[in-house]
Amino acid sequence: MASSADALVISFGEMLIDFVPNTSGVSLAESHAFIKAPGGAPANVACAISKLGGNAAFIGKVGDDEFGRMLADILKKNGVNIDGVCFDVEARTALAFVTLRKDGEREFMFYRNPSADMLLKESELNMGLIKQSKIFHYGSISLISEPCRSAHLAAMKAAKEGGALLSYDPNVRLPLWPSHDAARSVIKSIWFDADFIKVSDDEVQFLTQGDPENEEVCMSLWHDNLKMLLVTDGEKGCRYFTKNFKGRVTGFSVKAIDTTGAGDSFVGALLTAVARDTSIFDNEPKLREALTFANACGAMCTIQKGAIPALPTAAEAQKFIASSKAK
Question: pLDDT tens, 224-256?
Fold first, then answer.
């Protein structure tokens, strides 16, 4: 249970085990051994928030198996509230084998047929917890199949009715979708409900089928209910679009070993800042400062293997920013 005095941020969705090759730049078949790492974007975000001193809870389902219990324990050890975590006695915890290319970028192979996270039911949602949230954060993987899709939509509705801001990071994982068109259609089906959206440049390209460097292409993803649209550009940093201003915040150049969780580390840092001060959307200097900090958290997450173990504390991120400025 998190002991932070901050407003509550809930992450909803999947938590799984990533098996990461112990050597970068080899295929899954060529890899001799794998490092077992906790993963799943919403769970990574919850841990990122908690490690930065924020107040985080995770809602999702894992298998009632050794991996599932291990994952719940990792959330707890990282200070994340697990009152919304369910265990499925029938289905296993999801697994993902992750190939690390030489540049640290990833390719995924998933074992989910079906996995416990896909079987979360609306009746299992901790509605009392959801209604306490100031920010409700989610991805799109939980929209792929029933019953989890209905649970996801019900949780969003309850959070919104309780006064929460809705945060959406589609986190596109194409191997999990029946087709590219299905992915685009379902991801966009909840687009207009979100108060803020974070997409990577690759996701802009996939969703719009246009050039992500083109501002008009990015702005085609804007809608009038949004407080902010964020486009992350890897080590180049990020671009932000709000109702009143727009700009770019440069990133930090590091030697990436494993980019897993970098976007989640970025999102966690930003949501921590928003939970503390929602006026950030109307205050450009404050927003730029928060995005610089978020860029630093994202960069720091790439310099060791695995997502959750690589997430920085606030003190580590501040030290990293100071040493980067000193160079």
Answer: 999 999 999 988 999 999 999 999 999 999 998
Q: What DSSP string describes 227-276?
A: SEEEEE-GGGEEEEEESS-EEEEE------S--TTHHHHHHHHHHHHHHH
Quote the CA–CA distance of 256 and 262 in Å, as a whole number: 10
Terminal Cα-to-Cα distance of the chain (whole angstroms): 39
Neighbour count for residue 73 (Cβ, 10 Å):
12
Longest CA–CA span in the chain (Å) reads 54
Interhelix angle 41-51/66-77, nearest 10 degrees: 30
Cis preceding linkage at 42, omega within 30: no
Rg from Cα positions in the chain: 18
* 198's tokens: 């974070």
Q: What is the spatial distance between Cα 283 and Cα 305, in angstroms, rounded to a whole number? A: 35
Please list the helix, strand and coil fractions of the chain in percent, rounded to the nearest 5, in that order.
40, 25, 35
Q: Is the pLDDT of residue 104 over 70?
A: no
pLDDT digits (tens, 9 = 90+) for 140-169: 999 999 999 999 999 999 999 999 999 999
Say whether 21 sits in a helix, a strand or coil: strand
E strand or H helix at 8: strand 8-12
One DSSP character per residue, 184-215 reads HHHHHHTGGG-SEEEEEHHHHHHHHSS-TTSH
Distances (CA, A) of 44 to 218, 260, 267, 286: 26, 10, 10, 25
Residue for token pair 């897993």: 260
Q: How far apart are CA 290 and CA 294, in angstroms?
A: 6
